[in-house]
Amino acid sequence: MADFRYENKTVIITGGSRGIGKGCAQEFVRAGAKVVLCSNDRAEGDRTCADLKALALRQGAGDASFVYCDVRKTEEIENLIQTAYSRHQKIDCLINNAGWHPPHKPIDDFSIEEFRDLIDLNLISVFAACKFALPYLRQVRGNIINIASLVAAMGQLHATTYVATKGAVAAFTKALAIDEAANGVRVNSVSPGNIYTPLWQEAIDAAADPAQCRADGEAAQVMGRMGTIEEVGRLCLFIAAEATFTTGVDHRISGGAELGYGRKSRT
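The structure assignment produced for this chain is given below.
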């Protein structure tokens, strides 16, 4: 028996055509939701949407549609929200997933312009999507899930700009949760650790020793493996559908990467 526990709910997922966003889209469609996914890669978005629509057809519940959107452009975020509402006449859940992790390098090698651009992509887009979606989320007492990162709490070598943006996302989530509690809208964040995504595979391919890079990625967790995009999607679905007394909480999905001691000295 299929478990359509989010049937006929409308869910917007930014960066929904690949990686964690795609994992979320798959799990929400499996739960019977009507997913509106966006991406700045039209071909990839169309392919992912077609796969999701086929899944919905096979199971007899759920739906998917694609809206092109570069989340660095405020007017395109506003169009995404308005299009989703026009298609389905409500918005129940917003998942702010779109973002990027720049290549690792020390602060000396990051330009001010690079940092400003990353803030636009990883942080301002989250603020804008929440702002535009909240009037509709309040109507149905819906919820927001912002994708942060485990490294926001831990720090990360040669990743000052990325860590700063994700730390801001986690802090913003808590502040917005306080504001929106009076409106019945829950606001939570999810902080993934090492999740095997196309971005991770790109790092593996670029490494001097790809096999060792993959092995190191797996060994960083006490569970001895990276997580999957589907596992993150299932966590987000639980937060949206089941965790109805949870707001302002950062949910870690890390395989235990933050547990115990590790070698920290670089000498």
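Interim note for the steering committee: The mean pLDDT is 97. The longest helix spans residues 112-140.
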